Please model this.
Amino acid sequence: MRPYILAESNWKDIKDQQVDVAILPWGATEAHNYHLPYGTDVYEAEAVAAEAARLAWEAGSKVTVLPVIPFGVNTGQADITLDINLNPSTQLAILRDIVEVLNRQGIHKLLVLNSHGGNDFKPMLRELGLKFPDMFLLTCNWFLAADRKAFFNSPGDHADEMETSIMQHLRPDLVLPLSEAGEGREHKSRLTGIREGWAWSERLWSQVSDDTGIGNPAAATPAKGKAFFEATTRNIAQLLQELAAVDPKDRYRRG
Ligand SMILES: [Zn+2]
Model:
């Protein structure tokens, strides 16, 4: 039993345990090119949360990881078989109920650890922050927590070199040989503003990619995945430690 993982804990331990920070890992269930499993974002969220929490716990921070939420926003993948969509308004309802529990029980710090590009918790945390002023609400995308350019050459954001490397490290049993993977080529928008990155529209997944991937996974290796996973979890562990220690009423450095 890992005492910082709620799902593995029992009431005997929990009833007297001090919890300063709750971590809510949030994934998605969706196709990841031909070679990665539908649960990729869930496995990643669970593993990153658990390792970052372990490091923070061993440094003395009272953190606990809540069970991962396995479905994310997949509004752009409506015609990809069994990509399961939770609408943003549903996510807000789920989040509101969880925040209400934490707030009532005096656990006033929550990190939503996001594992999926279609999830956007910022507007939800703005709204919930007004409703629950005693809560210190944070979110981070674990996949941005370390500088990916220091580890990987190929750009991408879905089933790409980075994500494939991470899964080769975490769950090699669930990754097909790279000879089975598509190239993950992204078909660019006809609109200049979107191509340049300053305008946005949801990507229609069945048109933007032939194999559901965005980014070529060919150069992925488990060693790269391990190095990136370690850098990422170190940085998130630091965030957790600082979050556990900070006084929510005094969050900013003066001067
Ligand atoms: Zn993913």
User: Anything to note?
Assistant: The mean pLDDT is 97. Residues 32, 40-41, 158, 163 surround zinc ion (CB under 6 Å). The beta strands are 21-26, 63-65, 109-114, 136-141, 156-158, 214-215. The longest helix spans residues 222-245.
